[in-house]
């Protein structure tokens, strides 16, 4: 996980660099890129721009307000796996862009990374529940409590912003958390050292499980730690160990 977190940092740093370089070119050309590669509802010619619009902005204030949340939520969405994050980003961009393309007024050109921000936010908030990761669940609770105000610009009638793009991105992030959830089956209490782990064997097509007795010796001569045998906090210990906190 630490390796993936390192990759996530550089991925988001590179993404921000790309967005700012595009903004420099856009500004130098009097925002022609935003006009040419933005989304216009119902215009078939702009439909492919669902993939370019998130890189474009209308002003320096626009990109500055998006950069911080984009990096924070993007990193939190990516640190469990960069490959999964790329799939999530594509899903969110499509959900946000298509919502704008189908439902926005036809005289509005929409650009900006805020759809991605809302998608990453929704994903981070609920991912822990779907993946059953305690640390991610706690992160989701903290993010939801700290940034709940963001939802005020994802409701109908919000002036000056594409609330449809925000709402579509949020829906895409929630859907992504479900579609990209961790489907690997988790053996109860599995542990390479055998501390409180259940020993599972498959014989004759049937599963047989038995927990080692406290104080019973392992094959290597060590004994089962009674403080962790059958401990319901085993998953928490594993999560904290993954983070290097144990």
Automatic annotation (TrEMBL):
Peptidase S54 rhomboid domain: residues covered: 49-181
Annotated GO biological process: proteolysis
Localization: Membrane
GO molecular function: serine-type endopeptidase activity
Membrane topology of the entry: Multi-pass membrane protein
InterPro entries listed in its UniProt record: Peptidase_S54_rhomboid_dom, Rhomboid-like_sf, Rhomboid_protease_S54
Record key words, sorted: Hydrolase, Membrane, Protease, Transmembrane, Transmembrane helix
Organism: Streptomyces pluripotens
Pfam families linked: Rhomboid
Protein known as: Rhomboid family intramembrane serine protease
Main subcellular location: membrane
Entry annotated with the keyword Membrane: yes
GO cellular component, one term: membrane
Transmembrane domains' residue ranges: 85-104, 110-130, 137-155, 161-180
Region spans: Disordered: 187-233
């Amino acid at each position: 996980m630490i390796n993936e977190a390192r990759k996530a940092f550089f991925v988001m740093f590179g993404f921000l660099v790309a967005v700012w370089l595009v903004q420099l070119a856009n500004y130098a050309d009097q925002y022609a890129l935003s006009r040419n590669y933005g989304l216009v509802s119902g215009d078939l010619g702009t439909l492919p721009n669902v993939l370019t619009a998130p890189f474009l902005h209308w002003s320096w204030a626009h990109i500055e307000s998006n950069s911080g949340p984009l990096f924070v939520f993007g990193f939190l969405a990516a640190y469990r796996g960069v490959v999964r994050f790329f799939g999530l980003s594509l899903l969110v961009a499509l959900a946000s862009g298509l919502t704008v393309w189908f439902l926005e007024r036809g005289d509005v050109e929409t650009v900006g990374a805020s759809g991605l921000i809302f998608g990453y936010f929704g994903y981070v908030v609920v991912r822990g529940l779907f993946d059953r990761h305690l640390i991610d669940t706690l992160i989701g609770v903290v993010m939801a409590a700290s940034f709940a105000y963001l939802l005020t610009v994802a409701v109908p009638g919000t002036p000056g912003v594409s609330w449809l793009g925000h709402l579509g991105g949020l829906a895409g992030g929630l859907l992504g958390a479900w579609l990209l959830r961790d489907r690997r089956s988790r053996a109860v209490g599995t542990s390479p050292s055998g501390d409180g782990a259940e020993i599972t064997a498959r014989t004759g097509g049937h599963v047989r499980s038995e927990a080692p007795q406290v104080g019973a010796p392992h094959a290597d001569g060590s004994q089962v730690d009674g403080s962790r045998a059958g401990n319901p906090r085993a998953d928490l210990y594993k999560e904290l160990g993954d983070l290097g906190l144990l």
